[in-house]
């Protein structure tokens, strides 16, 4: 179905129509290894003449030396070709198709390359390469400051990373585990109260769960959100942010068009809430920080709370100066964003696949029930984290439905690089395609089949081969700073849910295989933007059900 905004985007629309037609005509030619070595044909002549109409899209002759000519012919002519797939939310799937058709190093834009081998992925993201992030990350500048995620130069990033990474490294503390377990209790409380009611949208529920946890870590206990239990402003913002994901590619690829649409709609006084969701969250974060500072009497050195805010207020730059409040506000906003939707998407797909595979629910339940319990009546995160069946299942979900859209663009450093004999000049944008790596048939047999057993019973060398191609959290110098936190949230919730309930996809709801296919948005959200699941209490849940209800009741009283 065409959406209004696709039609509004006339430049991309018309470019796409003729490029789609011509690409198919030229497929044979484009399969040749090098355009420069290919004999001239009338088709090529025609294309090269028409291509000059694509303003600013042809790179100079010197930039083209050695540039990979493998890939869809029209990608080499205009950046609007990949933009079209971006805006129609099909970018990742399209790049995967092109890798299957053309090979592991392909041109996806006049100055843009995608790679799909674990060795090249390691080269561009590894610490040794020193690749900077691309201009794409300028879109994540907030309050006029770059948070860790948006810092582009490799060297600037290294210093800042030490402060943030050390904070998230400390989440292994028992206090954080207790705090996550409290939030799990609240989720269970919600589900119990809704027994017999319509199915539960787990995309929203897990988004509230993730948001409450990250806000506790960012601002501290007194100032965190309570979105799981309370239907307030935060729920509306989170709901709007999900819808805003669908506008992301327009905003990133065609900022002027996006700005114009926003301006027009504001003028008509009918700006839809998803189009100002970012600003709403920014305002919310700004107000929270002011509340915390007001509460501590403006004393920035108050260290009673072990929150990221307090950590940053007490940190210094390498020159010994304090971090600016603007930078701190930007970092907290970025962490809110990074930690909410990614965890919600991952948890939603894990629950969805478990609901489709009841036998795996039983296997995971039996595995968790066999683990030793702590004084609180649950197995610790450390023992849950080493449970192989749950790990295999989660890995398979990450493989087929990774929680990020694969926009981890880097820039080829000065002097250029040679990959598999192909010289790529400096300044070219380069990305490893997560989805192509995760579906590489030479590594993962029958890559389109959902099969968690592929992760079980492997020799160490087989396991290493599979691991090298699985990158849901990125890789190398800029690997996700919140990986440990995300893993704790995901595993503690899944373990506790599946000891207590059986789940099914609600057959009467709109949740289907199609609605659960991923859009190529920044965080790969499910197309339906919801996932309706029914929860059935297991009567003999090893006492866990009874204990949890009791604890939830006592806390809520
Ligand atoms: C399942 C959940 C998550 C997934 C799949 C995920 C994925 C990723 C990926 C792929 C990157 C690398 C981007 C790049 O290389 O350009 C990244 C970076 C980052 N993530 Fe996550 N993430 C998750 C959860 C979290 C959480 C809970 C936090 C906590 C705040 C977090 C904070 C960050 C930060 C700060 C960065 C930037 C790191 C840097 O540039 O050094 N993420 N994440």
From TrEMBL:
Keywords for this protein: Heme, Iron, Metal-binding, Monooxygenase, Oxidoreductase
Cofactor(s), names only, from the UniProt record: heme
InterPro entries found in the cross-reference section: Cyt_P450, Cyt_P450_CS, Cyt_P450_E_grp-I, Cyt_P450_sf, Cytochrome_P450_monoxygenase
Pfam families: p450
Gene3D superfamilies for this protein: Cytochrome P450
MF terms (GO), sorted A to Z: heme binding; iron ion binding; monooxygenase activity; oxidoreductase activity, acting on paired donors, with incorporation or reduction of molecular oxygen
Residues annotated as binding heme: 480
Family membership: Belongs to the cytochrome P450 family.
Stated name of the protein: Cytochrome P450
Organism expressing this protein natively: Cladonia borealis
């Amino acid at each position: 179905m065409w959406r209004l905004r696709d039609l509004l985007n006339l430049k991309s629309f018309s470019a796409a129509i003729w490029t789609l037609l011509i690409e198919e005509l030229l497929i044979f030619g484009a399969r040749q290894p090098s355009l420069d070595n290919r004999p001239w044909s009338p088709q090529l002549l025609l294309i090269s003449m028409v291509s000059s109409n694509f303003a600013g899209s042809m790179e100079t002759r010197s930039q083209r030396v050695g540039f990979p000519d493998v890939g869809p012919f029209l990608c080499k002519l205009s950046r609007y070709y990949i933009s079209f797939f971006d805006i129609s939310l099909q970018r990742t799937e399209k790049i995967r198709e092109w890798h299957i058709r053309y090979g592991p190093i392909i041109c996806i834009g006049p100055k843009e390359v995608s790679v799909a081998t674990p060795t090249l992925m390691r080269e561009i993201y590894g610490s040794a390469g020193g690749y900077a992030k691309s201009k794409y990350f300028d879109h994540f500048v907030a309050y006029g400051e770059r948070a860790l995620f948006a810092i582009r130069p490799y060297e600037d990033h290294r210093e800042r990373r030490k402060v943030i990474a050390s904070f998230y490294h400390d989440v292994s503390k028992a206090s954080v585990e207790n705090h996550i377990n409290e939030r799990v209790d609240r989720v269970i409380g919600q589900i119990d109260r809704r027994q017999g009611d319509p199915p539960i949208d787990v995309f929203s529920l897990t988004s509230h769960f993730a948001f409450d946890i990250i806000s506790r870590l960012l601002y501290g206990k007194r100032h965190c959100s309570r979105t799981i239990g309370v239907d307030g402003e935060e729920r509306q913002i989170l709901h709007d942010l999900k819808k805003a994901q669908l506008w992301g590619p327009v905003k990133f690829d065609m900022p002027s068009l996006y700005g114009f649409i926003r301006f027009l709609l504001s003028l008509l006084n009918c700006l839809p809430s998803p189009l100002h969701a970012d600003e709403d969250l920014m305002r919310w974060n700004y107000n929270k920080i002011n509340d915390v500072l007001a509460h501590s009497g403006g004393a920035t050195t108050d260290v009673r709370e072990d929150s990221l805010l307090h950590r940053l207020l007490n940190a210094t730059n390498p020159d010994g100066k304090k971090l600016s409040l603007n930078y701190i506000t930007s970092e907290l906003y970025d962490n809110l964003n990074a930690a909410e939707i990614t965890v919600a998407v991952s948890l939603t797909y894990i629950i969805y696949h478990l609901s489709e595979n009841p036998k795996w629910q039983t296997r995971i339940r039996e595995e968790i029930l066999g683990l030793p319990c702590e004084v609180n009546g649950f197995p610790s995160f450390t023992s849950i984290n080493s449970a192989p069946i749950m790990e295999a299942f989660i890995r398979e979900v990450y493989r087929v439905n990774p929680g990020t859209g694969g926009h981890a663009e880097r820039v080829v450093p000065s002097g250029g690089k040679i990959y598999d004999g192909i010289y790529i000049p400096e300044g070219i944008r380069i990305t490893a395609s997560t989805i192509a790596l995760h579906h590489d048939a030479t590594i993962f047999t029958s890559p389109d089949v959902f099969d968690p057993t592929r992760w079980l019973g492997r020799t160490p060398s087989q396991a290493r081969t599979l691991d090298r191609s699985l990158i849901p959290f990125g890789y190398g110098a800029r690997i996700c700073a919140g990986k440990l936190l995300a893993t704790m949230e995901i595993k503690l919730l899944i373990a506790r849910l599946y000891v207590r309930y059986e789940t099914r996809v609600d057959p009467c709801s709109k949740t289907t295989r199609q609605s659960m296919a991923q859009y190529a948005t920044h965080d790969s959200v499910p197309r339906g933007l919801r996932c309706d699941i029914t929860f059935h209490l297991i009567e003999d849940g090893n006492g866990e059900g009874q204990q949890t209800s009791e604890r939830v009741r006592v806390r809520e009283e």
